[in-house]
Amino acid sequence: MKPYFSVLIPVCNQVGKMDECIGSLKGQTFSDFEVIMVDDGSKDESYAMLEGFAAEDERFHAVKHDGNKSLLAARYTGMENATGEYILFLDSDDHWETNTLELLHDKLTVTPVDVVRFGFIMEPAGTKCPPVPSDDPVGDYMKDKFPPAIWKNCYSHRVIEKVLERSESFYCNMGEDACLAGLLFSCADSFDTLDECLYHYVTGEGMSNSFRN
After folding, report:
1. Would the pLDDT of 73 be above 90?
2. Which residues of 196-207 are buried (b: 16+ CB within 10 A; e: fewer)?
């Protein structure tokens, strides 16, 4: 059976830096999910680390690029391999509240929309950032009322399929969130909001820099 959620994690040169990320997944109170970890040409032993995660838990899957193709390309590879009914993006230096998937599942069971928006927490300050209220998420995104991060939303598989039909991957390590967020929102027809702050966004780590040659 297909999992309810697919979690997509781009990885590049992250040995010793993913314990909190992986721990927050293994500790989820809702267990019907898969994790697609995409190594984008790491120069360290990141892929071996990902294979180790996969060997420990059958829900985890490691995919490897032959070379460095960029953060955006790693996310596209994740989307191409995702089989879940709903898809989320998680960066390897960030982590979730352990009830994230349970709360999203409960929301989607009642209201099966294309996109559920939720809040996040800026770390290490611990500043909570609830989702911006909106009756027109697409319009408000285009007006720059939302930060262009793709990881603070949950997307239906239908949205992901439409993105893959309408666009192709290309090399992009700067502004990749804005590029992909616009595509994801434009491919969605229905939205809902979960007011809880679930995603821990760690500042100052600079993971995107690891994806550069």
Report:
1. yes
2. bbbbbbbeebeb
